Amino acid sequence: QQPVQSPQAVILREGEDAVINCSSSKALYSVHWYRQKHGEAPVFLMILLKGGEQKGHEKISASFNEKKQQSSLYLTASQLSYSGTYFCGSSETSGSRLTFGEGTQLTVNP
Amino acid sequence: DADVTQTPRNRITKTGKRIMLECSQTKGHDRMYWYRQDPGLGLRLIYYSFDVKDINKGEISDGYSVSRQAQAKFSLSLESAIPNQTALYFCATSAPDRGYGYTFGSGTRLTVV
């Protein structure tokens, strides 16, 4: 079953923060996050394993709440280059294939 | 050269024609995948392979077939193309070194008329 992403779309001004959520009704082993720019392939950002440890860099990070089966992607002080569609992909066991959410379109304006 | 190469990049074909999309990789990954992307529907899994002798159906395999010719090559065929197979197709690979994070090819935009 496909994970559910929210919001579907968000528009920011440069420097603002955003949170994208990814929820599943199934018990998950991992959640992956990808960013896709228009006309390009999705690019891997990071993976979260069950255990709830937050990962990422200073401005783009993510967490995984195992009890809620929800992952959140945090974009801090957004830059124009952050624009694109963000996908979460979930797996139920280690190394199993991913099921992707429908995506969240993020637009950062000057 | 790209790690995961898909050919062709763009293709227009007629209804009923057989067409093959090819994917090759230089990453040495055992696991390979075919997804299709449609606006508003995200990425949906067609077929996947965890090694040369392993082929598995995904959620939307009807009307498609695959061949894993070698570790580096994974081809997707549309036996008799129909217009609702018009989509953007992505090949991807994964390995344990990055937690099985995917590396995607550049995609093939297929139009069936």
Distance between the termini of chain B: 32 Å
Instruction: Measure the end-to-end span of chain A.
Output: 37 Å
Structure summary, number of beta strands of chain A = 11
Count of helical stretches of chain A: 0
Helical/strand content category of chain A: mainly beta
Please give the largest β-sheet of chain A.
6 strands, mixed
User: How many β-strand stretches of chain B?
Assistant: 11
Helical residue percent band of chain A: under 10%
Written as H for each helix and E for each strand, in order along the chain, the element string of chain A is EEEEEEEEEEE
Secondary structure tally, helices of chain B: 0
The 3D shape of chain A can be described as: globular
Helix content bin of chain B: under 10%
Mean of all residue-level pLDDT scores of chain B: 95
Shape of chain B: globular
Structural class of chain B: mainly beta
Rounded average pLDDT of chain A: 91
Unreliably modeled segments of chain B: none
Radius of gyration of chain B: 13 Å
Please characterize this protein's 3D structure.
The complex is a heterodimer of chains A (110) and B (113). Helix content of chain A is 0%, strand content 53%. Chain A is mostly beta strands and 110 residues long. In chain A, β9 and β10 form a beta hairpin. In chain A, strands 2, 4, 5, 9, 10 and 11 form a 6-stranded mixed beta sheet that branches. In chain A, strands 1-3-8-7-6 form a 5-stranded antiparallel beta sheet, with no helix packed on it. The N and C termini of chain A lie far apart (37 Å). With 113 residues, chain B is mainly beta. In chain B, strands 2, 4, 5, 6, 9, 10 and 11 form a 7-stranded mixed beta sheet that branches. Chain B is globular, with a radius of gyration of 13 Å. The mean pLDDT of chain B is 95. Chains A and B meet through β4, β5, β9 and β10 of A and β4, β5 and β10 of B.
